[in-house]
Write a structure and sequence with these properties.
Two copies of one chain form a homodimer. By secondary structure, chain A is mainly alpha-helical. In chain A, 73% of the residues lie in helices and 0% in strands. The first copy, chain A, binds a DNA duplex (30 and 30 nucleotides) through α3. Chains A, B: Keywords: DNA-binding.
DNA sequence: TTTAAATGTTAGTGATCACTAACAGCGAGA
DNA sequence: TCTCGCTGTTAGTGATCACTAACATTTAAA
């Protein structure tokens, strides 16, 4: 774990909590364990956060990312299907990977579903933006007319499946690299949807 | 929960354990809770299974499905891409849905990864069969030449993502039905890969 | 009816959990 | 130097956990 010495105790505890909870689940790790991993006493944990749940909430507040997708759709789209899908796909995997541990934590404990919204609200937003993107591309006759919403969710589920597979079974299932997958899947969309 | 009265105590306990563990995780449910849900005393649980972990292992042994995909590839393939992908996709979702609770249980507890192999060994098998299917279709000139393995994993991840999304966030994320998704995604493969 | 196996009841084990009280050591700013 | 806020240590709370011992009760086959 090795939470660096340059951090203050609060941050050491937050990072240790994220690591351990992502590995063993919220219920699977004790406050004593977290404090030990952070290199502080258990009392410091309670003095700083009051309760185990507060600690997790503080961690989610502090170390979770969102809103970048919006920027990409607003500024980086060039209205070329291959280019745009690659950009969106790469951004998606980057964001999901940064939120990896958070996703694992809320995944493992049903009672934490209140936090799930925070760490997983973007999918809905992404689906809307992607649907609008496909619709616009169709209006510009750059894509054949299809159910834009279904295409959007297909693209998302494809990448979500890839991410979750790597997340849960750790690389081992296939010899296909993420790079190959991205190229192949985008080529699939391009061949199928361009006139 | 309402585990029927016609079952013997062993099966009542197995079903209650599966339900509760899928909902609250292995650690999230107590033996007392499981016994109560099964309508028997806690002692009956320990007399039948010895330990909580034995109970889960017995449940996985008894109520998990696999091997059907093999039969489909051996007997039901007609070498028409749309027909075959629809069949495979539907079978995939049926199998995953039947194993739904098992998947949730092992998902939520890292220490149960020993059981994960049992309930998730088919993906690797499926990927092989699907890759061989695409290769054969290419040799028959029914598909354009592409990276068959990448196509196979793309098809699987697409459906895995759809399944996991429904499993974890319960229908709510999109208005696209499973039926629409299947049609749209298979049409995607057909348009992209047929000459 | 007798008998034996399965089950229920009760009360308890020791371990672990989240969390607290009380006090002592410490370093930095005054 | 004094003080104050942060920290560590120790010892503990009461709750819950998986699991057990001992005995009473039910059930069904013989």
């Amino acid at each position: 774990m090795e939470t660096s010495d340059t951090l203050n105790n609060r941050d050491k505890l937050l990072l240790a909590a994220i690591d351990l909870m992502a590995e063993k689940g919220y219920k699977g790790v004790s406050t004593k364990e977290i404090a030990a991993a952070a290199g502080v006493s258990e009392m410091t944990l309670f003095r700083n956060f009051g309760s185990k749940l507060n600690l997790l909430e503080a961690a989610v507040d502090r170390y979770h990312y969102s809103g970048e997708m919006q920027m990409i759709f607003n500024e980086k789209i060039v209205w070329d299907l291959r280019t745009d899908l690659l950009l969106i796909g790469q951004a998606y995997h980057e964001i999901m990977n940064r939120n990896r541990k958070m996703i694992l934590i809320v995944l493992k404990d049903h009672e934490l579903s209140g936090l799930r919204d925070k760490s997983q609200k973007h999918p809905r937003q992404l689906q809307e933006m992607l649907t609008n993107y496909f619709k616009t591309m169709q209006q510009q006759s750059k894509l054949i007319p299809t159910n834009a919403e279904a295409q959007a969710i297909t693209f998302m589920w494809m990448n979500y499946g890839a991410f979750m597979s790597k997340l849960l079974s750790g690389e081992s299932i296939t010899s296909v690299t993420m790079q190959e997958f991205m190229e192949s899947s985008i080529e699939l969309f391009a061949r199928a949807l361009t006139p």
